[in-house]
Write a structure and sequence with these properties.
Layout: E1 7-14, E2 21-28, E3 32-39, E4 42-52, E5 57-59, E6 71-75, E7 81-85, H1 89-103, H2 109-120, H3 129-137, E8 146-150, E9 153-160, H4 161-170, H5 177-189, E10 193-196, H6 197-206, E11 220-223, H7 224-230, H8 234-245, E12 255-257, E13 272-276, E14 293-297, E15 303-307, H9 311-324
Antiparallel strand pairs: 1-2, 1-7, 2-3, 3-4, 5-6, 6-7, 8-9, 9-11, 10-11, 12-15, 13-14, 14-15
Length: 325
């Protein structure tokens, strides 16, 4: 990536005069979003246009096109509107995050603004936090928790932070993303929501108000009350309770090779763990995985081959896992 480029990639842009939609290559810099025509898969220079970000406002999610849920709307100081469509929710959120950062670059007052909003934000008198939570639980129009993965672990009955922000705005509980983040923080403080996993728990521990609730597609949350009420099966208890509220024995990055299985977590109860030397690498394992390998065999005889960053790290992981098996 070139110097000064914050993000680049494909977005589908709505035309200004004729409202057709065309793929363009976008390059985000500190104060400008440039876009280029494409010919033969390559950008055509000079840029076809530029969006000046100073004084720009961003709307995400933009709900003006029912059949295009992945839109971002930018409105410039001169009230020109740009509609940009991403290829996935993750890409949309990543672009919105980077563009918002570029708009607010050099404005340390944003954290102060959050503090002011935190102290001044009031729910309309006819709306209570209980009503919002009831609406979130609604089977047709609420938020549906589902399995989500973070850093190799799968967490049941969770939703991502940016999804809740989207939902609060689309249901008119908040006028913008800043208000929605503040409202979500209030729901956490009142124990209607709880953070799940490394990313969202880390934000709570940081103690920084601006980062209490994360408008982010990698931060996970769950319903605090429904979690307590609805867990019934042994499977749910063994997986969800440990993952949502268990003590972290060890954490860090590992490379894992699986054969014909979906990515996700697995139970360590009743499993066997052992170190593998270089000649113990199984046939069929792809890539450069020589060295620092260990193997976990679960009680249903599934074999996982995992690579640590060093022999010392491998030993630490093996010892930590043995304590749990």
């Amino acid at each position: 990536m070139e110097d000064g480029v914050l993000k680049e990639g494909f977005l589908v842009k709505r035309g200004h005069i004729v409202h057709n939609w065309k793929a363009r290559w976008f390059i985000l810099r500190q104060n400008t979003l440039l876009y280029y025509k494409l010919e033969g898969g390559r950008k055509v220079t000079p840029p076809k246009g530029r969006i000046l970000l100073d004084g720009c406002t961003i709307t995400c999610p933009c709900l003006e096109y029912e059949n295009r849920p992945l839109l971002i709307k930018l409105k410039t100081q001169t009230s020109t509107e740009y509609f940009l469509e991403a290829c996935s929710r993750e890409e949309r959120d990543a672009w919105a995050f980077e563009i918002t950062g570029a708009i607010h670059a050099g404005q340390p007052g944003k954290v102060q603004q959050l503090h002011i909003l935190k102290n001044s934000f009031k729910l309309p008198p006819h709306i209570s936090l209980h009503r919002i939570v009831d609406k979130m639980h609604d089977s047709s129009s609420g938020i549906r928790p589902s399995p989500n993965m973070e850093q190799g672990s799968t967490y049941k009955k969770t939703f991502i932070g940016s999804s809740l922000v989207d939902w609060l705005i689309s249901n008119s509980f908040s006028a913008n993303r800043l208000e929605a983040v503040t409202l979500a923080s209030m729901l956490m403080e009142e124990n209607f929501l709880r953070p799940v996993g490394v990313r969202s728990m880390g934000a709570i521990r940081s103690g920084d108000l601006a980062e209490q609730f994360l408008d982010d597609s990698t931060a996970l949350y769950t319903f605090a009350e429904s979690h307590k009420k609805k867990i019934s099966s042994k499977e749910d208890i063994s997986l969800s309770t440990v993952e949502l509220s268990g003590t972290v024995v060890k954490q860090g990055y590992l490379a894992k090779q699986e054969e014909n299985r979906p990515v996700g977590g697995f139970s360590l109860r009743g499993s066997l763990v052992s170190a593998l030397e270089d000649n113990g690498v199984p046939t069929g394992v792809k890539g450069n995985v020589q060295g620092n390998l260990f193997k976990v065999i679960t009680k249903d005889d599934t074999h996982y081959y995992i690579q640590a960053s060093s022999k010392a790290e491998r030993t630490e992981w093996i010892e930590a896992i043995k304590k749990l098996t």
